[in-house]
Design brief:
By secondary structure, this protein is mostly beta strands. 7% of the residues lie in helices and 44% in strands. The strands form 4 sheets. Strands 8, 9, 10, 11, 12, 15, 16, 17 and 21 form a 9-stranded antiparallel β-sheet that branches. Strands 4, 5, 13, 14, 18, 19 and 20 form a 7-stranded antiparallel β-sheet that branches. Strands 1-2-3 form a 3-stranded antiparallel β-sheet, with no helix packed on it. Strand 18 and strand 19 form a beta hairpin. It is globular and about 50 Å long. It starts with 14 loop residues before the first strand and ends with a helix.
């Protein structure tokens, strides 16, 4: 497994800004699995809303795209769930290697990444991130990615759920929030609580902690078809699942495209206000 002790792309902007306010830092976590992440991410009021390498899951890295199973290789970190054996330490970890940064500005950038394992590029990713202030207390992180199979052989994306662990369909966009004295609350337009929102599709999902709220919005029809992976009691985290119930085929030359807009808010707005944030994020 490749590890990065320092940022391997110093030419890439290290921050995202909304005007004069820096709201996120981007790079590889020192000594962690080989993938870039956003951390720390903060509200406009300065509250940190991400966590990196927490004691409960050392491979949780702020905001990232992480997949436990790409053609049998682990791009999530930690142990691999093996059917009939459970979580197992395997030498099957891949890295997301920085290739280029075609565009950059103070509030955003694009990046080309190669998802590599055993010397083979399994996926080529085009990633776009931008930050936009939408009020005095809220800003939007627009995060989209295109995963393309550059090879001549079909492959597929899986998860612990598709490998035999029910309810563990994580893999894709993932946001690890900070663990606080009390678990955060979570709700969608129709449901409330971890057991009700986990594994369901919803146009948007809100996670509220101590003085902050994250509103996750599926910004495309394909993204909205992916169920949400939600944890609040064990740890606070939200992901959009690429392979919640069955493996996601990625034929040779084909692409998987997803876009998540996250509204980062100071305070704990009510459901009506959160729904408005979600509507406006998609309409913008």
């Amino acid at each position: 497994m490749t590890q990065y002790a320092t940022d391997p792309f110093p030419d890439l902007p290290a921050t995202l800004a909304c005007g004069a306010d820096t709201v996120a830092h981007y790079g590889y976590a020192a000594g962690a699995e080989g993938r870039p992440r956003l951390h720390p991410v903060t509200t406009l009021g300065g509250l940190t809303v991400t966590e990196e390498r927490p004691a409960d899951h050392l491979h949780h890295l702020g905001v990232s795209v992480a997949v436990p199973d790409v053609a049998g290789y682990n791009f999530w970190g930690g142990r691999t769930f093996v059917r009939g054996r459970g979580p197992t330490a395997l030498d099957n970890h891949g890295v997301q290697r920085h290739l280029a940064r075609p565009h950059r500005s103070p509030n955003g950038f694009t990046q080309e990444l190669g998802w590599e394992a055993d010397g083979v590029e399994l996926l080529r990713e085009h990633r776009t991130l931008s930050a936009t202030r939408i009020s005095g207390t809220a800003w939007e992180l627009d995060f989209s990615f295109v995963l393309t199979n550059p090879g001549s052989t079909d492959l597929s994306i899986g998860s612990p759920a598709t490998n035999g662990r029910p309810g563990a369909g994580y893999g894709g966009f993932f946001w690890r929030a900070p663990k606080e004295a009390e678990p955060p609350t979570v709700f969608s337009g129709a449901h409330e609580g971890e057991s009700e929102v986990h594994g369901r599709t919803a146009d948007w999902l809100a996670l509220s902690g101590d003085g902050w709220t994250l509103v996750f919005v599926g910004a495309t029809e394909e993204t909205r078809r992916d169920p949400w992976f939600v944890r609040t009691s064990e740890y606070p985290g939200v992901g959009s699942s690429l392979a919640a119930h069955e493996r996601l085929p990625v034929p040779a030359g084909a692409s998987v495209v997803r876009r998540i807009i996250t509204v980062v808010v100071d305070g704990r707005p009510d459901r009506e206000t959160v729904a408005r944030y979600a509507r406006e994020a998609v309409a913008r």
